[in-house]
Amino acid sequence: MSLHQLVETQRQYYKTGEPTKLSHRREQLLKLRKILKEDHDTLTEGVYKDLRRDKRTTFGLEVGNAIVEIDYMLENLEEWSKPVYAEKTLTTALDTPMIYKEAKGVVLLISPWNYPVSMVVLPLIPIIAAGNTVIIKPSEISAHTSEALDTLFSKNFDRKFLAVVQGGVQETTELLKERFDHIIYTGATTVGRIVMSAAAKHLTPVTLELGGKCPVVIESDADIETSAKRVAWGKWLNCGQTCLAPDYIITTAALKPRVVAGLRKAIIDFYGTEIKASKDYSRIIGQRHFDRIKSLLDRTNATVLFKNGEPDRDDLFIPPVILDAKPEDVFMEDEIFGPILPIITVSGFDEAIEFIRDGEKPLAAYLFTRDQKKIQRFLNETSSGGVTINDVLMHITVDTIPFGGVGNSGMGRYRGKFGFDTFTHEKAVLKRGFFGESLLDARYPPQSDAKFKQLKKITGSRVGVPKIVKKLFPALPYIIFGVIMGFIAQRYGGHYLH
Amino acid sequence: MTTTNEFSQLVDELRAAFLEEGVLRTCDDRKKQLLSLRNMLTENLDEICDALYKDLHKSKIESTIYEIDYVVGEIDQTLSDLKSWMAPKKVSRYILQATDTAFIQKEPLGTVLIIGAWNFPIQLLLCPLVGALAGGNTVVLKPSEVAKNTEQVVAKLVPKYLSPKVVRVVCADAQETGELLKNQFDHIFYTGSSIVGKIIMRAASEFLTPVTLELGGKSPVIVDEGVDLPTVARRIVWAKLLNAGQICVTPDYVLNIDFCRIITQRQFDRLSSLLKSTRGKISFGGNTDSEQFYIQPTIITDVDGEDSLMGEEIFGPILPIIQAESLEKAIDLINKRPKPLSLYVFSDEQKHVDKVLKGTSSGSVCVNDVMMQMSLDTLPFGGVGNSGMGRYHGKYTFDTFTHEKAVLHRSSGFEKLLFMRYPPYTESKLSWARRFLAKWRSPI
Question: CB-based contact (8 Å) between B361 and chain A?
Answer without folding.
Answer: yes
